[in-house]
Amino acid sequence: MERRRKSPTRMAQSRLNSPTNDNMAQIDGLSLPNIEALIEDGEITIGVIVPVGCVAIANDGHNSLAMLKRRPSESLANLMLRLDAAIELATEHDVFTDEINTVSPTPKRR
């Protein structure tokens, strides 16, 4: 079997564009102070959980503060704003939001 030469390693080019002034204005306008404070010691996770769908979860290392399910046609920015508000409810008022593990009412049989 004949050996083939390996092609030289190429540097991967990023497909991300540098932020423009318009993009930066949108980013700067999105204030998420509770998420910012949380990620100093905790974490947020955004992704897909089958069969639930797209979710955003915030925890402080000990407790799940908020578990939100992305609503149909909801933008990522709106989901992040809802997550920020849910984190505030949990940290300030001990109200924990769970849209993932909620039990739907079972229909009564007759």
What keyword list fits this structure?
30% helix; 3 helices; four-stranded mixed β-sheet; alpha+beta; 110 residues
Can you lay out the helices and strands and say which pair or pack?
Layout: H1 21-29, H2 33-38, E1 43-49, E2 53-59, E3 64-69, H3 76-93, E4 97-98
Parallel strand pairs: 3-4
Antiparallel strand pairs: 1-2, 2-3
Biggest sheet overview = 4 strands, mixed
Q: What's the average pLDDT?
A: 83
What is the molecular shape?
extended
Radius of gyration: 21 Å
Distance between the termini: 74 Å
| Structural class category | alpha+beta
Number of strands: 4
Q: How many helical stretches?
A: 3
> Per DSSP, what share of the residues sits in E-state strands of 2 or more residues?
15-25%
Q: How are the strands of the largest sheet arranged?
A: 1-2-3-4
Overall helicity: 25-40%
Low-confidence stretches: none
Q: Which H/E pattern describes the elements?
A: HHEEEHE
